Amino acid sequence: MSxxxxxxxxxxxxxxxxxxxxxxxxxxxxxxxxxxxDQKAGIVRAAITRGNNxxxxxxxxxEPPYGHGMEPAxxxxxxxxxxxxxxxxxxxxxxxxxxxxxxxxxxxxxxxYHGLARPAEFNCGVLLxxxxxxxxxGGLGSIVRVMSDRKTV
Length: 153
Hints:
Strand content: under 5%
Distance between the termini: 19 Å
Radius of gyration: 16 Å
Structural class: mainly alpha
């Protein structure tokens, strides 16, 4: 919920310039990216069904949709990551996070922050558990890298 009545970000020249730069992060069209996310969803759900949450999370975090105008694909991928996080038992979170590479851990932290910003859509209690384990494994550097990165999910 925003406390502003006027979206002042639209008037900020730096924000507009950043949006233009972010538009060219992906060489694929919106439909191609959405199709890739849908294809990835089938593979991830199959891995969840087999109980292989590490494989599912690695696949969901690979090639996240970045760029301006990719919001539907970004939302679909965020829901996909959220499905994996909800399907993982609390005692298995440390093992799953430990099995990820540093870059994948940073992307996962981006999705955790994405979910925490939308408490009506995501379970914040589960996300906070994941946040704790990610920071334990990656240190405070993970938070700094995610907060300073302009590429958002």
